[in-house]
Amino acid sequence: MTQLITCNNIIYLRNTSSLHWHSVTRMMSEESQPMRQVDLGSPLDPPVSGNWFPSPPPPIYTCTLSPELEAKALEELQEKPEWRLRDVQALRDMVLKEQPNLRTRLDDAFLLRFLRARKFDYDRAMQLLLNYHGSRCSWPEVFQDLKPSKVKHVLDLGFLTVLPHPDPDGRYILCLRPGKWKANDYPFEDNIRAIYLTLEKLIQPEETQVNGIVILADYTGVGLSQASNPGPFLAKKTVSILQDSFPIRIKAVNIINEPRIFKGIFAIIKPFLKEKMAERYILHGSDMGSLHRHIPQSVLPEEYGGVAGHLNMSAWSKLLLDSEEEFVVEFCQPDPLEGVVLPSSMMFEGDQPRGSQDDDSFRGLRSQLYYCY
């Protein structure tokens, strides 16, 4: 049986016997497909409403990287243009051979995200892909029926946005304002849902896959109620998903206006961070001068001592909400793995067997997190 779903001029075909999604447009000639142009523009050009964020690669994959970004990808990610599609095919073959029942996209653009995130190491890219899908099974409160309309209340609250201008290194800036959320507003998991959808949108353009992103977290208004929620267990799950299960390069996390209680919050998170990631956390307090040494004023809103206008929370919300259809295709289809038990041997690097005495440790948690039932 074959199922067709159309989204953003791409026809997705699913053969229910193979459980894999394919882009039908890959079978058409390149000459028959109009190529979508990607134009980042000047970093300080005012964004055009609804059209300020770069597009994903075209339906039939054609590299959209500039020569400068191709050189950067070669230097930092070991991505060789002449080997790019060969590497993608190698990862595709690994999926088909080692995990034939895994429901996943297999198109070039999608698999490239995982190769770039793991510097074209096939095994590590495969592991990341498994983690990516395993996380969806492990946390249904976050991933079930995941689409922008379900987190509109989070967006309306002003919990997060993406600044319209990338920094001088081409990295878009995800701005989080956890103080806007109160524990009695809605479940903490809704914040994770909004962050995850934002990351999914951010990672679509190849520029982000190469440059990575920067996080700016404004802790104004964060008090004891936010600090005690989500607690260590959900903190572990959140860090594990964002650090080990998503194909994006987080290059810096800038914390501003953090209260004294933030030391307690960070003490909960830090044990679960890899050393390299922990080193990327920068605490600025209320010192805007310190922040400007890491993020220039030219891309920051006036609220953070910048010159790029007032903080606009609506542009990113509109972009996400306008992308509802593509997220329905990606996250809201019936799960072909429902009722399928994957082999217990499908464990992840560093995991311990379930039921070990160290169940409360992070490794014990990761074993539970990455099992897919």
Summarize the structure.
This protein has 373 residues and is an alpha/beta fold. The chain has 16 helices and 8 strands.
Descriptive overview:
The chain is α/β, with parallel strands linked by helices and 373 residues long. Helices cover 39% and strands 11% of the residues. It has helices at residues 67-77, 84-98, 108-117, 122-138, 140-143, 152-157, 188-202, 206-211, 224-227, 231-244, 262-269, 275-278, 288-292, 314-321, 324-331, 362-370, and strands at residues 2-7, 10-15, 21-23, 160-162, 172-176, 213-218, 250-256, 281-285. The strands form two sheets. A five-stranded mixed β-sheet has the order 4-5-6-7-8. It has a three-stranded antiparallel β-sheet with strand order 1-2-3, with helices on one face. The longest helix is centred in the middle third of the chain and has 17 residues, at 122-138. It starts with a strand and ends with a helix. Pfam families: CRAL_TRIO (PF00650), CRAL_TRIO_N (PF03765). It comes from Umbra pygmaea. InterPro entries: CRAL-TRIO_dom, CRAL-TRIO_dom_sf, CRAL/TRIO_N_dom, CRAL/TRIO_N_dom_sf.
